[in-house]
Amino acid sequence: MKKKVLIITQNFYPAIGSAGNRMKNIFQLLLKDNIDVEVLTIEPSYPPNKNMYKDRMFWDDEEVNNQEQRITRIPIKNKRFSNELFSRLFFYLEIMYRFTLELWKRRKDNYDYLYVSTPPIFIVLSALIGRRLIHSKLILEVRDLWPDSLTGGVKSFDKKWIINIFQYLEKKMYRTADTIVINSQGFRQHIEKKLKTDKEIIYLPNGPRQYELHANRKNHDEFKVIYAGNLGLAQDIDRLKQVAQDLNNITFILMLLAME
């Protein structure tokens, strides 16, 4: 009998970025392995510009396009407030509410596993509720050590009482999950310290699939490195600058997305 899995994620194809691409690949590989898999996500909005996804150039994977009946995309109003922190909080809370409502509707569905990705933590909270409603096992994928990434650079969150609440919720999600998936071995020790008992932790690194690699490398006298990751408050820009300085005989290129 086929195993049935529901992937719960904020970012999913065609949303650009590592999170959306990773979850798309997991979806495709589970299907390839004869798993009955569905996806619960929001309408593509990352980066925060929904209109760009009206362009069909982003919907370029026919394999996934042909599986749209397996994908539920929840519309999010994403109201704007004068306070950016409040806007972001409202956005996450709305996702949590709408995901929880959708999971309530599916409470009689026989899912074997809920596969949820964090951050953000609010989506995991909806999955914790859904786990009880559906009576399934929970696989928690940790792509970032949250809320530690907030205290590293996002000063708006650097309030002790807020961090204490988030750290409590962090322990709760680690201890409630049946299996934990990490994309960095550096996360293992941090998570194990939060657990009361031994738990299965699986290392599944980020990386391209074979068809995403283009073997057209040419020989050049100049060696170049491209950084194409996030570059915001939560990233350590000073560390990035130090790396660029250490690579003083290498051309260092930043690839950024212009936001309107």
Q: Write out the strand line-up for the largest beta sheet, numbering strands in chain order.
A: 3-2-1-4-5-6-7
Order of helices and strands: EHEHEHEHEHHEHEEHE
What is CATH's topology name of the largest domain?
A: Rossmann fold
Q: Give the end-to-end Cα distance, rounded to a whole number of Å.
A: 49 Å
For the record, the CATH class of the largest domain is: Alpha Beta
Protein name: Glycosyltransferase
Pfam families: Glyco_trans_4_4 (PF13579)
Organism: Gracilibacillus boraciitolerans JCM 21714
GO molecular function, one term: glycosyltransferase activity
Task: Describe the fold and architecture.
The protein has helices at 18-32, 62-65, 84-105, 121-134, 148-153, 160-176, 186-194, 237-246; strands at residues 4-8, 36-42, 71-74, 113-118, 137-142, 179-182, 200-203, 224-227, 251-254. The protein is of the alpha/beta class. The chain folds into 2 domains: 4-210, Rossmann fold (3-Layer(aba) Sandwich); 214-254, no CATH class. The strands form 2 sheets. It has a 7-stranded parallel sheet, with helices on both faces. Helix 3 runs parallel beside helix 4 and helix 4 (121-134) packs parallel to helix 6 (160-176). The chain is globular, with a radius of gyration of 19 Å. It starts with a strand and ends in a 6-residue tail after the last strand. Residues 21-207 form the Glycosyltransferase subfamily 4-like N-terminal domain.
